[in-house]
């Protein structure tokens, strides 16, 4: 019985999002949130966060690569909704995501392209899906992140999940499926949203 209880506890820990940091991060336009501990707004290597000045950007394991182009294991983007910060408002959830995606690394920025296609300029891309979730309008999109490994290259399955959360904050999470995919991204978003203070 004790062994089964321990196995259940370990399994639950594997799917629980990481603990949230103690310090609050200020959002452009006002308000503050707490971030999950694997995500950093100030990694040691220069990022592309300044390209998306209207959102708070945090990266998961942002690092240099041998190619000279930085890479990461995912990204968060967060901004207050227009009612809290009119100067940094977005006309829609899509507008928020499109503004935030400019801070992605090169491989994540190209992850909507369906693998196996030649570079012709007419590549077919994964399409975003819209839904109404329990906490507000949601946007999801399947992704395939091109990865260069020790034994070759491959495409890693991932997803984008974004929500215009009812607490008054827009959140987008780019996350590998192996790190929890959409269900984990939704829990991360809920945790960030519950920490939001205008």
Biggest sheet strand order reads 3-4-5-9-8-7-6
Unreliable sequence segments: 1-17
- Give the fraction of residues assigned to helices: 10-25%
State the separation between the terminal residues, measured CA to CA: 47 Å
Q: Total number of β-strand segments?
A: 9
Task: Outline the secondary-structure elements.
Blueprint (H helix, E strand, L loop, with lengths): L1 H14 L9 E2 L5 E2 L5 E2 L15 E5 L13 E7 L12 H8 L5 H4 L19 E5 L2 E14 L2 E14 L3 E8 L4 H15 L3
Antiparallel strand pairs: 1-2, 3-4, 4-5, 5-9, 6-7, 7-8, 8-9
Describe the structure in your own words:
The chain is α+β, with helices and mostly antiparallel strands and 198 residues long. The chain is built from 4 helices and 9 strands. Residues 1-17 have low confidence and may be disordered.
